[in-house]
Sequence to fold (338 residues):
Amino acid sequence: MHDNEMTENTNTAKVSVVVCTYNGEKYLPEQLESVVNQTFPLFEIIIQDDGSTDRTMQIAQEYADQYDNIIVKTNSHEKGINGNFFSAIRSCTGDFIAICDQDDIWVPDKIAHQVAAIGDALMCTSHSKEFSEDGSFAHYDQRTPNYGLLRLLFCNEIPGHTMLISRRLLDLLPTQGCEAMYQLRMYDFILAVTAAANESIVFVDEVLVHHRRYIAAATYTSYSGSLPTVNNALKIAAWSMSHYRIMKEATAERHSALREFLQRLTLNTKACTEGIKFMELMMSHRFIDFIRLEGMCLSHRAEIFHTRGKDPINILRALLFPYTSLYYSHFLLNKSEK
Fold:
């Protein structure tokens, strides 16, 4: 990025970094090194631990002893992933907040690029390149992801470790009446949906994070069966149609929580309005609503898939989407039912 592309944010922004930890001694030092060596000066680095029983807290304190801007906190009781992240994020005092996992690696100018790009937007994201050292499945998709709301409602394309958010985003999060959303969905999904509903996300088309995948990670899953191949597409279509009824019931609570959350945002954006309609039609059991859902999928086919576009093949994919979109939640079924 050239100097003349840098915004005023570059010189004036206060950036907080949140590192939430839990038994992360193995990879934490490498990640913290990539954070403290950012080319952009960081206002504060908050390391918040959720009851580790290994050397995580010792490592965190060692770094705090070396760097004045590192603050180490520990929860009085275990909060879980969502509780820990939201608690840590809300304790930040910077203008912008970057979210950091305990086991990834940032490129040195990650924050510099994102601060320069974010402008008045609520969120900035980027490419994240996966890697593995233990044989875990890792795949780097070089395509620019679709980070619009209608895509995110079905598949979150914005992992937390790529996020730089404006502090203003926190004030827009609804809390009352949205308990189900906070129980059923992850913190990064909630943040991404809120920013996308406000139509306020920018993307840096560069790899700014190297995302470590390993079997012991709390959120690890192998998604090799979901890669964009013809064979996988046929398998997903067949599975989705044969499991349609049971998945319709299995996803009803999640769709209801999403609809309620979007309604509580009280936005008049096109994205939010269309998102609410999508969730209502996904929950409905009326045949006429299924036809309406097919129509929405067709008219929004450039917005519901991983990459934007109206390729002819997307017409068929859109017609199948009321079925295949349920596959994103197939983990809700017991293994015996899959």
